[in-house]
Amino acid sequence: MTAVERQLIDFGKKCVIIYAYMPQQQGKTAKQRVTLSFRPTKVVDRLLREVPERVRDVLTRRFGLGKDEERQTLEAIGKRYGITRERVRQIELYGLSLIRKSAVYREMGPVFEELTRAVDALGGVVPHEDLFSFLASHRSSENALFFLMTVGDEFFHAKETPEFRAHWFLDPRLSQKVQEALRNLYHELPDDALVPEHEMIDRFLRHLQGVNDRYFNEEVVTRWLFIAKKLGRNPLGEWGKTNAPHIRLRGIRDYAYAVLRRHGSPMHFREVARVITELFQRKAHEATTHNELIKDPRFVLVGRGVYALREWGYEEGAVKDIIERVLREHGPLPPKAIVDFVKRERYVKDATILANLHDTTRFRRLADGRYALARDVVVINQP
Predict the structure, then answer these.
(1) Domain range holding 128?
(2) Could you report the per-residue pLDDT of 168-224, keeping only the tens digit for each?
(3) How far apart are CA 171 and CA 8, in angstroms?
(4) Given Cys at both, which of 31, 256, 341, 347 links 326, Cβ 3.0 to 4.6 Å?
(5) Low-confidence residues of the chain, pLDDT below 50?
(6) 332 shares its domain with 293
(7) Residues 6 or more apart in contact with residue 305 via CB below 8 angstroms
């Protein structure tokens, strides 16, 4: 029996089990079980006995520690007692101070040491929601743990800001380093960047200076990335700035963009619709998908019902337009070369391309079998 178990035997045998990825040597990770050997609600009940009844009621309501598990606002509690919200805040702080000064709080030292080890196992800097999803199996345990971490001197809580999500940490210096690295990473990324997760982690690690290597594993570092509100990951595991349409997917056209990027080559609109439905569990009708591909400038029609991404170098235009641009850029070319150039941008048959060359208002066949722009033929044939 451990020292923690011996001191907490009176608080019940039920344990809260969490799973964390423990830092390992050489960046490897191993999934290990971390067990809290106490019942958080039992510990909280014992601590609350150390404060007067009214103070106990205020703390119970503020942290959702009673039958009603909803955390009440200062204003709501103030209305109940006929006092100001500021007075409620004072009572709350007074109650927390009394608990910290009590003998029972000192007896609970092993509880807070165990919680400290659990937070450290999760990376030492942990988003609020992630932390309690690991530590608590239901709302009452979550509220009790939130109360214990608020009381405990070992823990710090950063409220949500425009830059960062709410998170808990043990070492203010580590928290500052993580935040600074996230800021630098955000400013480094182009607005339209779409970065695979492994590359995003590598970039982030380059900005982390003076951080213990034991935290450098994929699970911990990814958890830190999620602290940044301005960085996000799309359903395909790619990272970028959260305001970019390929990160925060909002409609069929964004899902279609993600599908085409993932596929890496042109696709028929029916296939795009099918993959959206299968990959994102979002029903995509073929007609709707086709309409969105037509309207969005990110897509280019490159064949009958086949679309590509403009960023791949495709441009709009009929086959004749493509031929004209090719001849304008490269000069007279034999038919085979023209076919090769056009088929890089359009999914059409060779015969279709050759048929378009017969438009004598735009193209002329030279004596050597090459084709040129009709308007340039006179100049080319001059001695």
Answers:
(1) 3-158
(2) 999 999 999 999 999 999 999 999 888 999 999 999 999 998 999 899 989 999 999
(3) 27
(4) 341
(5) 1-33, 380-383
(6) no
(7) 268, 269, 270, 290
Query: Is 247 among the domain residues?
Result: no
Q: Would 325 be classed as within a structural domain?
A: yes
Q: How many domains does the chain have?
A: 4
Distance CA 172, CA 158 (A): 10
CA distance 149 to 141: 12
Q: Which CATH number fits the domain that encloses residue 366?
A: 1.10.10
In a domain, 233, yes or no: yes
Nearest Cα neighbor of 37 from 19, 15, 17, 18 is 15
pTM of the model: 0.69
Spatial strand order of the sheet with 156-158 comes to 125-127, 167-169, 156-158
Take residue 14 and report the two structure tokens written for it: 């039920």
Domain boundary among the residues 191, 212, 241 is at 241
Which residue is associated with the tokens 């006179």?
A: 378
Contact indicator for 240, 247 with CB cutoff of 8 Å: yes
257 and 367 share a domain?
Answer: no
